[in-house]
Design goal:
With about 240 residues, the chain is of the alpha+beta class. Helix content is about 40%, strand content about 15%.
Length: about 240
């Protein structure tokens, strides 16, 4: 099996591999599982419904676990203890997404494990920071569906206090990217953030995609002289399919 998704870059490569494996088993075994049922099986292996949902169903996805499974619990042990593989353990929703939005991804040539990035997060958060993120997360999906788009509002809604401040130093130059690559400086830019836990950086934009990509790469290279790859992507509306 081959994957074109770079590993340990915050791009969901592990979730994509899990979805591919479950779909391959479904095809070879002639199991005739629905995608919703395969979603359950995928979540038994990887407990990240946002990544699994996006890889499986495509589009702009929101998802959560309905059944809390300890990450350390082996899926085989859990299945035996329940008597059968669990059903309906996660839920997902497709949000509308303005088709004018493109995704610029800048991928640095170094790995960052999710475990290491997670280790940077605090055990507790202040009420103020939790409210800050909840307010913005509640608005962002609606803002990304609007026509016309509002860059100022989207940029503010993409701000974060729960993970980026603690992981910024893991990506040399990212702090300067946030300070300098802004929607009021680069026409067409909507916002910039870490992709997953990093180290890749994601920008949403409607125009000037190459200019935005070059600006991010230039700032990163000034801080850490390594190779950076950049790609301009669009949402896949269908997710995983078999040929």
């Amino acid at each position: 099996m081959y994957s074109g998704i770079p590993l340990s870059r915050g791009l969901g490569s592990s979730a994509a591999a899990v979805v591919a494996g479950v779909m391959l088993g479904n095809e070879i075994g002639h199991l005739n599982l629905s995608k919703d049922r395969m979603f359950d099986y995928c979540l038994m292996v990887e407990r990240h419904p946002d990544n699994i949902g996006a890889a499986c169903f495509g589009g702009f996805i929101g998802a959560f676990m309905k059944m809390q499974i300890p990450p350390s619990e082996p899926s085989e042990t859990l299945s035996k203890s329940l008597g059968a593989p669990p059903q309906d353990i996660g839920s997902y929703h497709h949000f509308r997404f303005n088709p004018d939005i493109k995704i610029v991804v800048v991928i640095p040539d170094f790995h960052l494990s999710t475990v290491n990035a997670r280790g940077r997060l605090p055990k507790t958060y202040s009420r103020e920071d939790a409210v800050f993120n909840a307010q913005r997360c509640s608005l962002l999906p609606a803002l990304l569906a609007e026509t016309p788009l509002n860059p100022a509002k989207i940029s503010e809604a993409m701000c974060d206090r729960l993970h980026q401040p603690y992981r910024t130093d893991l990506v040399p130059g990212f702090r300067n990217v946030l300070q300098n690559v802004k929607a009021d400086v680069y026409p067409g830019l909507l916002g910039v953030c870490l992709s997953g836990a990093g180290p890749s950086i994601l920008a949403l934009a409607t125009s000037n995609l190459e200019q935005i990509s070059e600006a991010i790469c230039a700032i990163l290279k000034e801080a850490n002289d390594i190779r950076y790859d950049s790609q301009i992507l669009q949402l896949d509306p269908d997710g995983a399919t078999t040929c």
